[in-house]
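G., the chain you wanted modeled:
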Amino acid sequence: MQRSRDHRDRRRQRTVIIVGIAILLVIAGIVVYGFYDEFIGPPRVLAARVGDTRYTQGDLVKRMRMLQAASEALGQRLDLGRAPFQVLNSMAEAELIRRAAPSFDVQVPEADVELALLQRFYPVIPEGQEVQPDQIEREYRENYRSFLSKSHLSDEDYRKIVEESIYRVKLREKLGELVPSIGEQVEVHWIRLPSAFESQGTGPQGPSPEEVLDLLTKNDFGGVAGQFSTERRYADEKGYVGWVPKGVFSSLDETLFGSAEHQPIAHDEISQPIFTTEGTYILKVTAGPEEREISATMREGLKDQALDKWLLEQKDVGGREGWLEMNFSSDLYSWVNDQVRQTAPRATPPSSGGR
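Predicted structure as tokens:
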């Protein structure tokens, strides 16, 4: 009986030990999986694939950190709401351009990359100040090293990004060679208000499009544009854009030039608000359409549109044929932004100015 009890006790002890080991293994497995899921797995997850070239979520974080450093240098904050999607898209586009570059006879020698680095990081010498060449060279190298340190990029990584930007500029110019010098145009004035996304900021809110339309019934267009329009690349302070050819602002073409279903806006009438991803526009046309020479500013806009159109076509073909793939989910979006926030500069608390 004693031996039987001892045998049962030993068996019970072995059972307890086995169960304890099993529990410890489960806990260890959970810890290991959590560590992998948090720190090892996400950086290796596919973000984009163009042919045989793969970009991971870790690559996306690198690009985001570069933008973060650039924004910091300009005294701005990186918009984490849109930046992950924009950077992911730009990575895929960069590879599309690089793959197609030989067919357009576009090349980027190392000398072009070196020149771009000099333009970005070479110190500005105040007029009249004399400095030694070796001192300027040291400052240039230090500026570059400081940027790499802040953006957590290697020299090789950043040179590749610079090379991609040069490829993009050169392909845009190649496609721009097909842009016509003369085209049908209308004379345009506009008021550009922030898009719905921009209006979500914490700053003071401007008037709604409806409120602006009401102001235009009682006030001069130029005066209202000068007070509320937020666009200055194409329009002057009174909202005058000038002669605009079809295709520069594709989302406005139907209002400016009409379509099979709609008549163009009549001269000197005020359009209803036109909501686009770039902003909300209120238009006025004062002349045209007529054939005119296209201005240098509008030709640059047509070059942008030519590149965008080419990229959209490539993405469509790549998606249908299976050699283009992009992967981004809400979980990966959160993970990418968390990684970027970890390296964001901490805000300096304001001075108390004494006790």
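The CA atoms of residues 226 and 238 lie 5 Å apart.

Shout if anything looks off.
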